[in-house]
Amino acid sequence: NIPIADLHWVYVPESPDELYTEEEYFFLAGQLIANDVVDASDCPSGGLMLNGYANACGMTRAKETVITVQNLLNEPILNAYDEVGVPPVLLKQLIRYESQFWPAIDDGTHYGFGHLTNIGMRNALQWNPDLRAKVCANEATCATNIPVADQILASLVNTCEDCEYGIDLDEADRSVDILAESLLGFCFQSEQLVFNGTGWYSNLAVDYATIWKLTLMNYNSGSQCVFNAVSSTFDITQGPMNWSQISANVSGEQCIRGLNYANDITAKYFDFPPSE
Known about the structure:
- The chain has helices spanning 7-10, 26-34, 56-70, 74-83, 88-99, 118-127, 129-135, 139-142, 146-154, 169-198, 202-205, 208-221, 223-237, 243-247, 253-265, and strands spanning 105-106, 110-111.
- By secondary structure, it is mostly helical.
- The mean pLDDT is 96.
């Protein structure tokens, strides 16, 4: 039950090659230059702007490597669909949006490809037992343990001075899997929020695409935003809801940010499904 308008991001590629992109990511280029993966020493200011992004000359020097790096995860992203169930286009778009494929720490609180936070990791651990089984020595207390969540997050920082492209690719593959499991945890929570807000099981209240958009809203702006939007919409529809109806009942700066986040990540980007 997938709306035609969502097929471009719900579509599952037959091979990793279908996820190939050639975007000019200026943050990624800046990181490649700053970490000596790319030499831009002949550029003004060494190829970098004051904010750490590449300048135009820096991007010219880094572009080939930028294209390579943004496609290093295509296979593990597709594997994450087979093994975890997260839509691959959604996952690649989220990584693009959050980190531009550079798995470091941002502002000291956001980690890895998906810029997960400590509270976000603990939330995902609470809702996804498969995630706990993969990363927790003691599953019983893992979801409430802040230092344990910090350790898990630290393992998602896969930059590496001596590695090709500045990224530990073996650890990066694992990090994609952990990110996918974390998103699935948020999806499980979103299903419960739909039930709490409507009294209906989520598969009866919303379609497949909408539950993932609610998951993205939850991931970005929190569970209260999802609950409020769903319950307010159900008060009006008294039945199944689509994304447009839910969107019309999102209010507050934080929740609108989550709505825009979900829309940005699921916007038309790849040419899916392929033409017959």
